[in-house]
Amino acid sequence: MQVTQPPWELVVFDMAGTIFSDDGLVGAAFRGGLVAAGVAGDAALDDAMATFARNRGRSKLDAFREILPDEAARRANVAFERRYEELLHAHGVTAFPGIEALFDRLRGAGVRVALTTGFAPATRQVILDALGWRDAVDLAVSPGDAGRGRPYPDMILTAVLELGVTDMHAVAVVGDTRADLVAGWRSGAGVVAGVTTGADDRSVLQAAPHTHILDSAVDIESLVGTGLTSYARR
Q1: What's an example of a GO molecular-function annotation for this chain (predicted)?
Q2: Peptide bond into 143 cis (omega under 30)
Q3: Can you name the CATH fold of 10-21+94-222?
């Protein structure tokens, strides 16, 4: 029996690497956080950055905890957030082409838009202000708002509850990392789409649980349009 797809209710987008270009700022700020926490020497820093690369998409504090004891990880995270904001002010942030117009079209069609990120709420708001997006989305969620960051589904489920979504099959999740896709799959979302514009390449995304791999987050519109008449995930 074919099950008819319900009207789409929500699209959840990751932020850095999915809807705006990272340009290496996250990595530079993370390295700065490590140095501030006392990680010294090129070899030690390179090893720590390799661990970070394997944990892209997760809460930044959790990523530091993979490398450092808890107290040092917290110091590193504070330094990271401060350094990232400095880099944002110095270099700016650029949305990928078509993203803001996509948000407008989705919301105009009655589909809500939520953002999830591994950044702390204060840094998240700095990014949204830099992009002029405070009113462009329905909700933005950080790990601290939800309990746990990726790869747990908490941020997605928090958005679902906050926005009154009635059917997880009517939710699409879009992200550029393996952690994004694992979180989306665990949430039960109907579409879990990886995009190749960010941290993890196509081969990494294809090895993670997903329904689609896209060249751009803008391509999600083709999946939540009227042409999709059955559940993408079975």
Answers
A1: phosphoglycolate phosphatase activity
A2: no
A3: Rossmann fold (3.40.50)
